């Protein structure tokens, strides 16, 4: 089994790719639809299932800590996207499955208020 790409302090950081994200999100959606979420996150067996699914589909060594860290990243992205969609001039393109922006001026105004968006 391939180890995830490690970098930094050696504390188990891995680089995620689209296939890994899909395997993880497929698991989360499946268990969410079953109601297997608790007040403070996922039930423990969901993490076990997610680890198994990502390992099997992507042939990488992954831990619960990796899953929890990626989930925090998803939460941050969700917050940012929701904020954009609540802003006038932003919408969702259902055909392309991504955010749409009405004009360059809408984007420029958003970046002016959210400096981290200009990346």
UniProtKB/TrEMBL annotation:
<dbReference type="Pfam" id="PF12776">
    <property type="entry name" value="Myb_DNA-bind_3"/>
</dbReference>
<feature type="domain" description="Myb/SANT-like">
    <location>
        <begin position="15"/>
        <end position="110"/>
    </location>
</feature>
<dbReference type="InterPro" id="IPR024752">
    <property type="entry name" value="Myb/SANT-like_dom"/>
</dbReference>
<protein>
    <recommendedName>
        <fullName>Myb/SANT-like domain-containing protein</fullName>
    </recommendedName>
</protein>
